[in-house]
Amino acid sequence: MTSDTESLSKARLRVWLKLLKTVNGIEGEIRRNLRDGHRTTLPRFDVMSALARFPDGLKMSDLSSFLKVSNGNVTGIVDKLTEEELVQRVPVPGDKRAQIARLTSKGEAEFETLAGYHEGWIDTLLDTLAMEDLETLSDTLERVLAQGTEKERADA
């Protein structure tokens, strides 16, 4: 590698480490806020968030794919949310083993409350960024994500 290539490579590595540290810090703060202020967990919030995006519900397998976690992880969370009447399971017609999970009206209300807090936490954690900074960062991350998606398609 040439010196310029090495320094570009090192700069990319430093950016990656800063991104990782930032994401881990924000995620840790969100986990604490959910746990301490709302007696819930980030995985539960994530399941409710996914189901809020799909009002007709999702098959359990689609929910785990959407969240990129195992079926077992999703099943355990949905079980608890069902016990609390925040989620309901509905059989899939024609498929005796499949079920669709969807938020109940109680679950929708609970998620709206949590989502409002979540947005406020993120707003506070990123309040040093001006709109121009946010747009630049968002555009840059979109390019990185698009490159990853292209590589996934090429590998498939």
Topology:
Layout: H1 3-38, H2 42-53, E1 58-59, H3 60-67, H4 71-83, E2 87-92, E3 95-103, H5 105-125, H6 131-155
Antiparallel strand pairs: 1-3, 2-3
Helix pairs in contact: 1-5, 2-5, 3-4
Helical proportion, percent range: over 70%
Q: List the secondary-structure elements in sequence, H or E.
A: HHEHHEEHH
Oligomer: single chain
CATH superfamily: Winged helix-like DNA-binding domain superfamily/Winged helix DNA-binding domain
Characterize the largest beta sheet: strand count, sense, and whether it forms a barrel: 3 strands, antiparallel
Rounded Rg: 19 Å
Report the β-strand fraction as a percent range. Answer: 5-15%
Global mean pLDDT: 93
CATH class: Mainly Alpha
**Molecular shape:** globular
Kindly report the spatial arrangement of strands forming the biggest sheet. Answer: 1-3-2
GO molecular function: DNA-binding transcription factor activity
GO biological process, one term: response to stress
Protein name: HTH-type transcriptional regulator MhqR
Pfam families: MarR_2
Structural description of this entry:
This protein has 156 residues and is mainly α. The protein has one domain (3-125): Winged helix-like DNA-binding domain superfamily/Winged helix DNA-binding domain (Arc Repressor Mutant, subunit A). The protein contains six helices and three strands; from the N terminus they run H-H-E-H-H-E-E-H-H. Strands 1-3-2 form a three-stranded antiparallel sheet. The chain starts with a helix and ends with a helix. The mean pLDDT is 93. InterPro entries: HTH_MarR-typ, MarR/SlyA-like, WH-like_DNA-bd_sf, WH_DNA-bd_sf. It comes from Roseibium album.
